[in-house]
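#struct-pred
JK: can someone run the complex with FO1? inputs below
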Amino acid sequence: MKKIVALGGGVGAAKLVRGLAKVLPSENLTVIVNVGDDIDLYGLHISPDLDIIMYTLAGVVDETKGWGIADDTFNCLETLGKLGFETWFKIGDRDLAVHIARTKMLKEGMKLSQATQRLCRMFGIKTKVLPMSDNPVQTKIQTAEGLFLDFQEYFVKRGTMDTVASVIFEGADKAEPTNGVIEEIRQAERVIICPSNPILSIAPILAIKKIRNTLETVDAPIIGVSPIVGGKALKGPADRVMTSLGFESSAYGVAKFYGNMLKRFIIDEVDKEQKKRIEALGVKVTVANTVMRNLDDSVRLAKIVVDAE
Ligand code: FO1
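RT: done, structure tokens with the ligand placed:
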């Protein structure tokens, strides 16, 4: 059975990872997760992308939103609002328990990767979930109007309304990959770049030099899945961010963004006419139905990803 490393961010990655976890033995799957979206709120350390992956693998995610815990209540947030705190980041009561537990572990001296391992164990998750780094990396957004925003301010507070002029991964130049990340990539029989936002979810992982260098020199094929279908992002602002940063908002544009790192790119059937253009970049192409509306879709796409040569 193939050993697979998947790189990803939030909801799109979680959907594919859920499928991969169904088709692979747990010891054969490692997920390396973006932490550039992490935020400190009310004294708590929140790692939204790690949480989305964990909740999805544990089967407790709010399927409608793709983040947060299903059937959560918001009593704490409501009271915080009454006490005059900002409440734009919608943390549910059960979700809050995870942030409290994580923050306590970090305060006691655990690394983020150790806290993640403990949380995964508590949720009964056997897949190895690794933050890309134990060091802080903060995604910052410079807007066309000259604002300099924290990622969640751009994403949630302002609802991605700003035109992105540039993206900075603060701390990435000094960040080390989490222990085990490089070895996992080197030992993998294939590396999957999940259908996550290339610029906001995958680029922060690639901004860690040792991870990028390893991916650029690894023998295992790197297989990407396009998060852009028919020119539009399946979720979030990837299409607009690609355009504002000068990339074509298309499967081709994403393949070009990843450059010669990619061995194969999986694009949606609606984009099949882009196959030849992408192949001209030196990337093999698989055309498939890539939209994951339910677990069956995730499993179907996971099988395609695992079997693609
Ligand atoms: N996403 C939103 O669009 N709105 C929210 O209020 C929000 C709250 C939130 C709380 C905890 C958590 O773990 C994730 C949360 N997310 C929310 C998701 C998250 O901000 C983004 O989806 C990712 O950072 C992008 O991958």
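RT: quick notes.
The mean pLDDT is 97.
Residues 9-10, 37, 46, 48-49, 51, 67-68, 89-91, 95, 152, 155-156, 201 surround FO1 (CB under 6 Å).
JK: thanks, will look after standup
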